[in-house]
Inverse folding.
């Protein structure tokens, strides 16, 4: 009796290794993959505007970096004695306008350098819903707890999002002709929008991702489908029943690893994982000879890893 759907998909033809530069952008799910690859000492970078959910804001920020222009001053504002950017996540803030603009400009320069030299850009779409400032019409990446009366909320169709992504990919290919794109749709449910509304939103993103991958020969990693169609159970979600839990994230990452990372690098990652298990081992009696021997073993394993893989960022 078959009780589980085994989701099968083709691996990427271009595989990540420990010499690859991998840039990430998009939703919190992209950040989960970024965190895990960073732990395994891969050369990773998350774009400086932080966690972003709407596809157009992701593309607009990338193109702004590629142009090399100064960050638009009208996109920063003050709220509750703190300065924010309408194009950035709430984790990007400062005490003054000048400080924020300076920090953003420095980050954009770093982002530009990474986009020009990276081997892979991994981006994840979160939601089709978008917020605009009523007065200016500006698209915002984050509402920053500004009263909802200041915004107009709407849903973007895939037909309105695709043109800006075609422009973005063309600009990326022009500055970095060998860049490889990996696209996915976040499996996180945005239930505050409504169940039906969330499904329509995800449908737009799925069509958009499909169109992008077909037109630009990019790779689609099915994070959304793995959780929705293979795991399919709320035991793989956090208590809010919207976000995948640690077990689900680990499982999806294991499929990313086996389908997007080359075998030699997977072996190195397994060795690093074994080392992490070793150093996270709980010690009860630190005064014993057994503990001293254990500490010596950890130091030896670490030294062997550094000697075997000197190119990693230890």
């Amino acid at each position: 009796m078959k009780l589980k759907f085994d989701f099968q998909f083709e691996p990427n033809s271009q595989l990540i290794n420990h010499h690859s530069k991998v840039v990430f952008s998009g939703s919190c799910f992209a950040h989960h993959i970024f965190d895990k690859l960073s732990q395994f000492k891969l050369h990773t970078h998350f774009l400086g505007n932080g966690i972003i959910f709407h596809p157009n804001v992701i593309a607009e920020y990338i193109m702004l970096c590629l142009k090399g222009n100064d960050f638009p001053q009208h996109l920063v504002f003050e709220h509750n004695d703190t300065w924010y950017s309408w194009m950035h996540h709430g984790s990007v803030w400062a005490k003054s306008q000048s400080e924020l603009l300076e920090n953003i400009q420095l980050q954009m320069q770093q982002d530009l350098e990474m986009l020009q030299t990276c081997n892979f850009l991994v981006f994840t779409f979160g939601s089709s819903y978008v917020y605009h400032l009523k007065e200016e019409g500006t698209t915002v990446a984050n509402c920053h707890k500004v009263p909802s009366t200041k915004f107009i909320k709407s849903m973007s169709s895939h037909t309105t999002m695709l043109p800006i992504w075609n422009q973005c990919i063309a600009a990326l290919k022009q500055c970095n002709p060998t860049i490889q794109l990996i696209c996915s749709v976040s499996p996180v449910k945005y239930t505050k929008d409504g169940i039906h509304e969330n499904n329509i939103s995800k449908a737009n993103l799925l069509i958009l991702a499909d169109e992008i991958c077909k037109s630009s020969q990019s790779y689609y990693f099915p994070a959304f489908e793995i959780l929705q169609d293979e795991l399919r159970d709320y035991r793989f979600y956090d208590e809010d029943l919207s976000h995948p839990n640690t077990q689900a994230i680990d499982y999806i990452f294991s499929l990313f690893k086996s389908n997007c990372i080359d075998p030699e690098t997977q072996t190195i990652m397994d060795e690093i994982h074994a080392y992490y298990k070793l150093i996270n081992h709980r010690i009860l009696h630190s005064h014993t000879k057994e503990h001293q021997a254990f500490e010596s073993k950890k130091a030896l394993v670490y030294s062997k890893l550094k000697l075997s893989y000197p190119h990693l960022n230890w």
